[in-house]
Amino acid sequence: MKPLITMLMIPILALGQTPSAPVGLGVTTNGTPKLSAGNQYCSPSGTWIGAATDGPAKLPKRCVNSALQNTPSPGATHGPFTTLGALQSAINAGACGDIYTITAGTDLGTGTITLPRKNCDDQHWNLIESTGITNPSFPAAGVRMTPCFGGVASLPGRPSYPCSVPANLLFRIAAATTSNAIKVLGDHWRVIGALVTRVPTPGAQIFQLVDFTVAGVPQADHIILDRIWYAGIPGTFPVASAATDTSTTRAIYLGQSNTVAMVDSYFSDFYTASQRSPSTDAQCVAGGFGGLANTGWGNYKFVNNHCEASSEGILMGGGNGPPLTPAGCTILVNCNDDTPSDIEVRQNYFFKPLQWNGNTTVPASVGWPVVKNGFEMKTAIRALFEGNVIENCWYNAQVCYAFSIAPVNQQSGGTPSVPTCPTCVIKDVTYRANYSYNVAYGIGLYAFAPGGCPACVPQGGNGVSIHDNLIGDNLNLGSLTSQNAGDQMELYAIKDPTNQGLAQLNNVTISHNTFVKGIRSIMEIGIDATGQMHNWTVQNNIWSNANFGVQSMQNSPTACDAGINTGKLFPILQNCISTWTWDHNAVFNWNQGALGTNWPTNGTGAGNLFTVGLGSPSWFTGYGTGDSNFNPSNYLANPSGPLHHAASDGADVGADIPALLSQIAGVRQ
């Protein structure tokens, strides 16, 4: 196999900084996968060295520096091994800082590698690696793994990856039915160069290939999963029955672990078909649920990965959470923050193969992968999402968003339902410089109490910064005849049913985004009471007015959003949110009455621009039909048009496209 050509580091620009030569998408110019700037915000000691805040959101405080030189393994070297039993025996007997090698190409068979607790320190990491990492063609640290290094030249329905001569440089371990391939119980483990998969038997239920579940404390900590191919098995759809189902629910379940990095890896074929029982969503990585209080969970890093999952690429929350502490505190009053904190999700390719889409004129609901969002946060504190590409997402099990924020107190069955996550909250989430292509919906911001659960008092969300994203390029509604609701953004906040608290969604900034195409530009749902939402700033965005513009759904006849019936375009904004700014936005393809009718004005809406069609001269350098064929440069503001230097900060209205291009260079492969 020919060695990969060493590439230069692509500079990661600050948003608003113009690169000397914008880098295109796909692989880098010399044909190699992208070399990630995986530690640009993280000191060797794990302290965040990026900015402390982004608008109203605080950025992470902790981080995982995954550079090899920061995880030394100075102990004895064991192996190379060719059997699972010999490997596990050596692991059990080894000391902190030891290295365990497995011969490249070895199939360890069906079983579980268990990583025990050894109470090591940061100068003594335990390392498990394939001997294939010494091959000159093996991807260097910071370069993404592909199936090429597992001997597979290409996968059908995926963008091509560089692979001149495939070679099997990995070791293989397969999870047995209802079990795991890797069980993480301990601390200070790094794994490099593995193919982690499952038994090929149809009907075998595999819920996670890598499992961090630990019954008590301490939880698993200080784990780096590096240059790994996580592989479910390709399905034949529609699945006929549970006996022929080949679903793999997820690659990694984080439990309540802390200080975990998943970097430079390839996740393929994680889906759940509707025949799976019990039915559940499928992800590359899931976390954010667990019942132990105050474990310090979080400090997660997911950087430079190819991620294929039918429901959500990453899901935080959606299950039970710890009880409120200290004793006697109540939701939103003097309680500990006890949810995954300090999360870094950057420069990943969230991709759903189109062969998973069985829609015709109606959604395919039987036998096909259950499709939901690109990624979703139901609970998180201090999370950064930056430079990710989300491609292919369609209406299926629900509306499909590129990104969804939905803090909610989950519930279990019974009448009435019982709340299971009083600690679930969204605080300080930043979503910047991300690009969605061929996705049905844009961004969903939800804060609500589940129906049928009077005791499910929610914590809601506080501190959200959304900026410099490109959303809705090649809107994906497919051939559905009954689906006409591709929202560029959806806002939803309703009060909890017993008035014990409010589903708040406060201190939100939405700025410098470009929304290319949609059926509705904005859908507003709720709100019950003034004060549920305050301190909103919506500035300098470009919106397509789409087919139906802004629409609202009233939550109740007595709600403050009753302005829906009085001709107001933004009744939720104008009636329900205290302290808001909505200015210097640009709306094109206006198709309803006089330009700007019913938009807020004066101090909270000054400087908004409106045009029929694409304006004269055109607002964009090359909008075309709203399908750029994966070329975001089409949506640069025309230098001779009215958006150039027209933002409130003197920049162009809309996303900073050159900075976006720099952030996502090489991510799509």
Mean pLDDT: 86
Which secondary-structure class do the elements indicate? mainly beta
Low-confidence spans: 1-33
Helix fraction, binned, reads under 10%
Main sheet overview: 14 strands, parallel
Summarize the structure.
By secondary structure, this protein is mainly β.
Give the arrangement of secondary structure elements.
Layout: E1 53-54, E2 57-58, E3 77-81, H1 84-93, E4 99-102, E5 107-110, E6 113-115, E7 126-130, E8 171-175, E9 182-184, E10 187-192, E11 194-198, E12 210-211, E13 221-226, E14 229-231, E15 250-253, E16 258-263, E17 266-270, E18 283-287, E19 298-303, E20 306-309, E21 312-316, E22 341-346, E23 349-351, E24 375-377, E25 380-386, E26 389-393, E27 401-405, E28 411-412, E29 418-419, E30 426-432, E31 435-439, E32 441-447, E33 461-467, E34 470-473, E35 487-493, E36 505-511, E37 514-515, E38 520-526, E39 533-539, E40 542-544, E41 550-553, H2 571-576, E42 577-583, E43 586-588, E44 609-610, H3 657-664
Parallel strand pairs: 3-4, 4-7, 5-8, 6-9, 7-10, 8-11, 9-12, 10-13, 11-14, 12-15, 13-16, 14-17, 15-18, 16-19, 17-20, 18-21, 19-22, 20-23, 21-24, 22-25, 23-26, 24-27, 25-30, 26-31, 27-32, 30-33, 31-34, 32-35, 33-36, 34-37, 35-38, 36-39, 38-41, 39-42, 40-43, 43-44
Antiparallel strand pairs: 1-2, 28-29
